[in-house]
Structure formats: C-alpha cells, structure tokens
Amino acid sequence: MARTRFVPDSGLTLRMTAVMFVLGGLFVALVVSLMAISRSAPLAIVIGLVGIGVAFFQWWRSDTVALKAMRARVVTPEQAPELHGMIDRLCAMADMPKPRVAIADTHVPNAFATGRSPERSAVCVTTGILQLLTVEELEGVLAHELSHVAHRDVLVMTVASSAGIVAGMVTQGAQYGGFGLARSRGNNDNGGGAIALVLALVVSLVVYAVSFVALRLLSRYRELCADRSGAYLTQKPSALASALTKISGQMNAVPERDLRAAQKMNAFFITPAVRGVSMSTLTATHPPLEQRLDQLAKISASLGKSY
C-alpha cells in the first residue's frame, strides 16, 4: 500500500498477495501443461508470451482503457471546480497524489478508480451520480475510490485478470482448431490427439474457474475495505451509507440500455450496474448492500456518532 493516511488493511494485502501468487502459479501450470499435452514447446512459449503481454498491457494502459470503456473525459479544475475541490481536499487529508479527474456522460449513478499507481491514476464519476448525491455523499464516494488507489487493489484486480483472459483464449483455441494439438500426436494416433484436446480444455477451464472465483472473493473484500477506509478518512460513515443506498435504489430507474453499456465495468464500480439481482452469490463482484451498511453503522458507532 502507498504511504497515505488511509487506514491500512493487512487482510487486503494478504489477499492480494495470495491471489497474485495463486494465479501466477496457475498461469505457469497452464503453460507447462500445454507443453506436456501438445509436445510443442514453441506453442506453449507463445501462449506464455501472450499472457505476459496481456498482463503488461493491463498494467501499463489500465487507466486509459477504463476511461475509454466508459467514454469518460478528463476534466480540468475550470470545467469541474466543485469536483476538483472535493478531490483536492480528500487528497490533502489522505496525503496522497491527486489523480486525474474524469466524468462519464451516462444516467448510471456510479464512480470508479483506475490506474497502475497513485501517480498514474484517475477517478471517474458519472453525470448520473453528480445529479443524485449531496456534497457529503459524493465526498464519501470519492474517499472510497481514492482508497482503492492508495491500496493499489484496482491494479491487482486488473493484472490478476490476465490469467483468466489467457485461459479463456486457450479454451477457445482448443475448441476451434485445437492449436494443432490433435496433429501433434500424429495422424496415426487420433485417439491421443482427442485426449490432448480434452486435457487442454480441462486445464484451461480449471485456470479460468479458479481465476473467476478468486477475483470475485478479492473484489468483495476490497469493496468492504474501501468503504471502511473512506469512512474513517471523512469521519462521515453515514454519508457513504446514504450514498450507497441512493445509488442502489436508483439503478431500478436507469434505462436498460444504459445499464447494459456500463456492466463491463461492474467489478470496478462502487455499486454494480444491475437491478433486481442478489449480491450474495459466489459470482457477485460486490458484498450485499446490507453487509456494507452494517459495517458503516458499526464504524459510526465506534466514532461516537449517530447513524
């Protein structure tokens, strides 16, 4: 974690380290397995290089890609003085570098943080959230997002997803063409070629499944950590609780077209762009709203404030 005044969280650090270690190990296992299955070292090396390339691209361009995905525009202090003023105050309170500030023109009330480091980061809010929240509520949301930047968990989420991306590519390749796996066993050994294809599919699917579950477990914990860190920074947990309640409730009024367009960023939003879906399942990217509100209520009680 970067040196800031945000409350440190050893649990988040441990989980991020574990996820990176496990997924890195699985990625190596995937490459080695493909070498053994296909008996083609060049093929496995190419896949390994592709995986490293994907991870590097995710790390280097994460902020640009995320902002483009939401069609967000970076705004200057002259264009958004109140928004910049809030972020200036929060960054001074947290003793951290100020990120770029962006606005996405969409009815979906949401916000997210992105970037490979506190020095190379961006915080984006939507026009929908600017219209919905009060100043104190928006400040709570921004503190939550700045906490993601300070803890660097958004970077870990972005890079760690590379293992699942490569595993998905291998799965598709094995299904459509087999990466030459069948041919690698020779024309007189069709049975061996079929077994190689099945093994390649199984290995890549296992890597993808583990990556999928591990990232969602980490995602849910990091959201609770950001709620907690942001609430302690502002000393106003009730404002963040109110913001989360408003955002979740407003999702039902957002046009379906806008929700679909925004859903690709759900793992990074403060609240997922969905309606009428339980967030208590294994596949959820965020903890249930009730759990988040309960945590904020306990923080409020510990601060000696009414909730």
Automatic annotation (TrEMBL):
Names of the cofactor(s): Zn(2+)
Keyword annotations: Cell membrane, Hydrolase, Membrane, Metal-binding, Metalloprotease, Protease, Stress response, Transmembrane, Transmembrane helix, Zinc
GO MF annotation list: metalloendopeptidase activity; zinc ion binding
Coiled-coil spans in chain: none
Binding-site residues for Zn(2+), renumbered to this chain: H144, H148, E223
Membrane-traversing stretches: 12-37, 43-60, 154-174, 194-218
Main location: membrane
Primary enzyme class: hydrolase
Places the protein is found: Cell membrane
Annotated catalytic residues: E145
Domain of life, per lineage: Bacteria
EC number: 3.4.24.-
Residues annotated as domain Peptidase M48: 77-298
Cofactor note: Binds 1 zinc ion per subunit.
Protein topology in the membrane: Multi-pass membrane protein
Gene Ontology biological-process annotations: proteolysis
GO cellular component: plasma membrane
Pfam families, A to Z: Peptidase_M48
PANTHER family for the chain: PROTEASE HTPX (PTHR43221), PROTEASE HTPX HOMOLOG (PTHR43221:SF2)
Family that this chain belongs to: Belongs to the peptidase M48B family.
Protein name in UniProt: Protease HtpX homolog
Organismal lineage: Bacteria, Bacillati, Actinomycetota, Actinomycetes, Propionibacteriales
